[in-house]
């Protein structure tokens, strides 16, 4: 009888401790989620505020984790400023999930930004893209044309890279991450 009572008490204590621990974990996850939302909101506020630090006019972009950096010259618009504001809170390490199996893959790449980032846009119909042009498109996607192209689409201009053979080579030879099956582009503040 004593054993049953002790076993029952031990079971109750275990279950209570387990659910209390889960509650702390959920509270922690909720706090992390709130913190991330606050950072995103603050970043949006920074890009729109005239009183805060100046938004950079250039960003550094590496194709692959260890790739050489190239300068992304930003256009003066709200979309570019918002993306630069996000980079101001930390590097954007964006995946390229499909890089050679979609239409026009030989002239462009796209990088998905998490949907939690709210990026304003003002799309216009673009029919001719120059090598090095960078756009924003739905759904939260940065689109890079690394070769000249004749493609019709709705895009918001973000900026451009200075075209060079080294630039095209870096884009085309961006290594696939071992164990992931995709490529990475890293966008950071320019030193």
Structure commentary:
There is one protein chain. It is built from 3 helices and 9 strands, in the order αββαββββββαβ. With 191 residues, the chain is of the alpha+beta class. The longest helix has 47 residues. α1 crosses α2. The protein folds into 2 domains: 53 residues; 132 residues, Beta Barrel (Cyclophilin).
How would you summarize what this structure contains?
The chain has 191 residues and is an alpha+beta fold. The chain has helices spanning 2-48, 78-88, 165-172, and strands at 58-63, 69-74, 92-96, 108-112, 124-126, 133-137, 141-145, 153-161, 183-189. Strands 1, 2, 3, 4, 5, 6, 7, 8 and 9 form a nine-stranded antiparallel beta sheet that branches.
Q: Which topology of the largest domain does CATH recognise?
A: Cyclophilin
N-end to C-end Cα span: 72 Å
Number of domains: 2
How would you sum up the major sheet?
9 strands, antiparallel
Provide the β-strand percentage band.
Answer: 25-35%
CATH class of the largest domain: Mainly Beta
Return the structural class: alpha+beta
Q: What would you call the shape?
A: globular
Name the average pLDDT: 74
Radius of gyration, in Å, reads 23 Å
Residue stretches low in confidence (pLDDT < 50, at least 5 long) are 1-51
Helix proportion? 25-40%
Order of helices and strands: HEEHEEEEEEHE
């Amino acid at each position: 009888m004593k054993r049953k009572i002790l076993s029952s008490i031990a079971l109750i204590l275990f279950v209570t401790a387990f659910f209390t621990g889960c509650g702390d974990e959920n509270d922690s996850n909720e706090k992390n989620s709130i913190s991330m939302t606050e950072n995103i909101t603050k970043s949006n506020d920074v890009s729109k505020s005239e009183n805060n630090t100046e938004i950079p006019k250039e960003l550094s972009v590496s194709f692959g984790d260890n790739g050489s950096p190239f300068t992304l010259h930003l256009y003066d618009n709200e979309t570019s400023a918002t993306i630069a504001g996000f980079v101001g809170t930390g590097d954007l390490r964006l995946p390229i999930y499909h890089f050679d199996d979609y239409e026009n893959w030989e002239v462009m790449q796209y990088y998905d930004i998490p949907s939690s980032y709210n990026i304003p846009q003002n799309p216009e119909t673009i029919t001719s893209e120059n090598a090095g042009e960078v756009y924003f498109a739905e759904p939260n996607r940065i689109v890079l044309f690394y070769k000249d192209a004749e493609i019709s689409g709705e895009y918001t201009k973000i900026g451009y890279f200075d075209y060079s053979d080294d630039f095209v080579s870096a884009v085309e030879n961006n290594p696939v991450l071992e164990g992931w099956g995709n490529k990475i582009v890293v966008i950071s503040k320019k030193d």
